Amino acid sequence: MASSVVVGQYLTKTPVQFENFDDENIVTSSANNGKKECNGTPKDTSPALPGWYADVSWPGEAHIYKMEKIIFQGKSEFQELLVFESSRHGKVAILDGYIQLTENDEFAYQEMLTHLALCSVPNPKKVLVVGGGDGGILREISRHSSVQHIDICEIDKMVIDVYKKFFPDIAVGYKDPRVHVHIRDGIAFINSVPKGTYDVIILDAFQPMGTQCDAGPIAEVLADKCFLDSVANALRAGGVLSAPADSLWHKNFVVADTIDKCKNIFKGSVNYAWTTVPTYASGVIGFMLCSTKGPPVNFKRPINPLNPEQNGVAKGPPKFYNSEIHSAAFCLPSFVDKAIDPKRY
């Protein structure tokens, strides 16, 4: 994604290149098409903050991570991926300068984006994930025994391969035999499927809904009514979309406008939910939950609770999501509630 600001950087005197690492700590594997896996630590760093990574995805603020070592850095025909070991957050993944996840708190985002949707409809059988190449959404879908078929559309095979190697507890989702992987453009894939194909669609490949910055062509497509019309068309009557939305703390995010846009397209229930994920800017991430016209969906009252004895391919029960957290996620602060429904105040 393009950006009008520097998205991510090493805090060093000069940009850190592979030449800044000891040669013996760099492994180039022909099996990885020449991509370098690094076990060293950065040199030539600033005396103030040596070996730190700054995530400056949002103007005016930054999250800074102490880098213990770079594990992987590679570039495909689509994007560049960096993985490093941090001192407090475990392994961190950076895609084209945007932080994707940390081992410390990835489960909060993955669990909420998945279960807010799947626990709101009875017996979901067919699910599509667009993006989500790390496999964490697949891991969470695997907890639902009613699901019979899972499609995941990820444009970049490099992303899948790197997560499988360096984040096995997240990429374990690919071990679910119900998963069918499609390496292709997600927008084209959605446009190609027959009407009413899916019970649930989870978007995990785009700039969050409501973002007002210059986020490039992918974010523009997500904001495009034609694309969201295609998503609605791919859902059955009463089917559900789950997508990341902007943080309620970002001043340019108008929750009411995003809700109104989604209501005009999906014609069913539309709700904004939120949760805390310390990795992301402001420490909060939002979600848009939308259903198409058909059997009513009350997102605030989960009717398909998780079975505590059914964990699918996941290595243990959820760490964040439960039915109480589900309902609480739709409880909004007064300033947001007032913006959505000013007549109540």
Automatic annotation (TrEMBL):
What Pfam families does the record point to? Spermine_synt_N, Spermine_synth
Active site per the UniProt annotation: 204
User: What GO molecular functions are on record for this protein?
Assistant: spermidine synthase activity
Single GO biological process annotation from the record: spermidine biosynthetic process
PABS domain location, by residue?
Answer: 50-292
| Xref: PROSITE patterns | PABS_1, PABS_2
Name the protein family: Belongs to the spermidine/spermine synthase family.
Name of the protein described by the UniProt record: PABS domain-containing protein
